[in-house]
Amino acid sequence: MFRKILIANRGEIALRVICACRELGIPTVAVYSQADLHSLHVRFADEAVCIGPPPSSESYLNIPAVISAAEITNADAIHPGYGFLAESAYFAEVCEACGLTFIGPSPEVIQLMGNKEMARRVMQEAGLPILPGTDKVKGATPDVLQRADDIGYPLIIKASNGGGGKGMRIVNSAAELPEAIGVARNESQAAFGSSDIYLEKYLPCARHIEFQVLADMHGNIVHLGERECSIQRRYQKLIEEAPSPYVTPDLREHVGALAVKAARLVNYTNAGTLEFIFDERGNYYFMEMNTRIQVEHPVTEMIAGIDLVKQQIQIAARQRLPFRQEDIIFRGAAMECRINAECPNTYMPFPGRITAFHPPSGMGVRMDTAAYDEYMITPHYDSLIAKLISYAGNRADTIARMKRALEMTVIEGVKTTIPLHQRILSEKDFLEGRIDTRFLERYAQR
Ligand code: MV4
Description:
It is built from 15 helices and 20 strands. It is α+β, with helices and mostly antiparallel strands. The strands form 5 sheets. The chain has an 8-stranded antiparallel beta sheet with strand order 13-12-9-10-11-14-19-17, sandwiched between helices. A 5-stranded parallel beta sheet has the order 3-2-1-4-5. Helix 4 links the parallel strand 4 and strand 5. It is globular. The structure holds ligand MV4.
C-alpha cells in the first residue's frame, strides 16, 4: 500500500479522499492555494503545502508546484479528485515519470477518452451503439453539409476536446449550420486550445444515464449499475439518482455488460463512467467516457455499499477487486442534490460569505461538504457548497427524506439552489420518475 497520498484538489472532494485514506490508514498531504489556508482539507490532512496564489492556473493546475509538494513531503501517490488535473493525460504521465502513482487510469486511456470524437469511434468498434455523426469537421464544406443532411436535423456540434456539455451547440436547420460551425470552432479553440469539432444527431427529449465501472490491474472489471442525471441546467448536473427509475434489471445487466466489455477493450483501469443517452423508444447510445471519480459517485456508493474512492486507491496499489460482478447487490434508492451558491433566476454563480451553516443529519442522510460557519465561497473556484445525499429502501421514501433534509439545511449569507430543489421535488412528473433532458426547460416556463 502507499506510504503517503497527496490530494491534488480542494473542497468537498479533497475531504472525501481524506476520509478514504484515513479508513485505509494512509497518511495524507493537502495542497492549497493562498485562498484556501483556512480550509477543512488543510485542517484534516496530516500535512499541507501551499502551492500558489488563488487563481487555479497558478495553484491547483500548477503541475510543477503539485509535483514538488509530493516530493518534499515524500508522498508516493497522487489522487486528483475531479476537475483540475483529474483528466490531464499529461499530468498522469508526469506523475509516473517522477515515480509517483497517479490514482486513476493510464495516461494513454485518459488521452484516448479525452478526445470525444475518437472515443466515439473506439467505443463503436467495441460494440457500443453510437448516434449517427461525423468524424472531425474542418469547416462547412459541401461534403459536410451533405453529411449533415443525411444525419438530419436537429443536430448538435460538439468540441472533440470538450465534454460535460462544454462547447456544445444545437443546430435546427441547414441554414444555421455554416455559421454555427464557424462559431463552434472559434469557441472550441479559445476554450480547449483545439478547434476540432464533430456533428452528432441531437435527441431533444432523452435521458442521460451513466454506468459506473471499476477495473483492477489484473483484468477484473465490474459495473456498479447506473446513475440517472437528466436534471441539468447549463449542462451542469443538479440532481442525480441511482438506480434510474427507467432502467429495469434486465436493461441494467445488458448495458452494464456492454460497459464492462468496452472498458476491457480499451485496457481501462481504475474507476470510470460511460455516459449514455436513452431515447423514448428504449434505444441507447454511448456519448462519452469520464476517466475520473465523478461528483455524483455517492449515489452509487449508497446503493452498492461500496466505497469507490477506497477502491480507486486499492486498484492503484495493484490490489485485486475484492468482489465479482455477482457479489454486487443493489439495495434501495439514493439521490443527490447539488447545493450551489447561485442566483435563482439566472443560474449564475453567486459567491459570498456563508454567515450561518448547519448540515442536516439523521437516518439515510449524508452531506459531503467542506463548508462551515463564516466559510467564504470565492469566485476563483466552483460554486458547489455541498452535496446532499439521501438514501432509503425505495425512491418515494428517498425523496421524502431528501425533502426533510433540505428543510433542515441552514445556509445563510448566499443564495443557493435549495429552493429550486424543493420545487423540483414537489413536481408530479419528478415524483413519478418522468424526467428527461427537457424537464427543467418545461418547468421554467411555468
Ligand atoms: C446530447 C444530448 C442529446 N443528443 N447529445 C449534456 C452533457 C454532455 N455530456 C452530453 N449532453 C447531452 N448530449 C446528443 N446527440 C443531450 C445531452 C444532455 C442534455 C441536453 C440538454 C439539456 C439537458 C441535458 C441533460 C443531459 C444530457
